[in-house]
Amino acid sequence: MDTALVFNKHNINGTGPSMFGGFTFDPLKKKTDLWSKFSGALFHIPKYMLTIVKGEAYFTTNVVCTQHDDMSLFDKVTREREDVLSKAGQKPALAELNLKDVIEIAPEAWKQTVTDVLADFENSELKKVVLARELRLNFKDEVQSESVLVNLLKNQQESFTFAFESNGDCFIGASPERLVKKDGSSLFSACLAGSIARGKTTEEDEKLGEELLTDQKNLIEHQYVVDMIKGAMEETCDEVLLPEQPVLMKMKYIQHLYTPVIGKNREGTSLLHLVDRLHPTPALGGLPKQAAIEKIREIELLDRGPLCSTCWLDGLSGKW
User: Which of 86, 218, 254, 282 has the most CB atoms around it within 10 Å of its CB?
Assistant: First the structure.
């Protein structure tokens, strides 16, 4: 950023130079063909970026300039911007997503992996290990990322929806979890662990929610996440605030135990230090963190690939 020229009169996160990308879940895990087009860490600063905040739209342009450029670069970018903006109201033609088949990858082997991990708990320091499994959906025609995004934005409105392309492949999804957000000196993280279905009626939904709020297994696992995130934030914060009890976060199809954690960032500390300390939380990896990651690396069949993040480049104060 020392050599960047930033012309931005708006003091709003999400405007100005912004970096998008992610790190692989476990850089020491052997990479599979599925994620071969994504590197272990990959970030981009987009040439053109649209940001919508509280109903206001902002359009950011980022250009790499060299000592060989002249004003013709400015004219070229201006023409490109006008072309992009002229197409802003056009809606792309989206093909239907026609599912052909669903394939579970090695389900019996995954079940055996779960059994083996449970047996290891008696003779190790492990308290929790989160094992992932792979489900492949094959469609009759080529899948448009735009079609998937439209469906996610419609059906997962409470989640953070993303699509990140690399060498022709697209990593796309929606998650209700935010690892950490930084705004000035304020830090925010969300403890999300412990889940149950939504009810078909209001009465059934409230009953299921109350069941989740009083279920000891889910409360214990949720507390693992709370304790870990609280401890990590105390390393970089002068003050950490959180409620004594979790509440419910209700999604369209599922409800979770949810505890917000707020901190005041200590001067001179880095957001990246906190990201390194937090990831993966016990909700994604396990506890203790390092032992759980090593166990996952050893026995899990799949390569989990990257985790996406976003960072505003004003002194690395933004949200991840």
Answer: 282
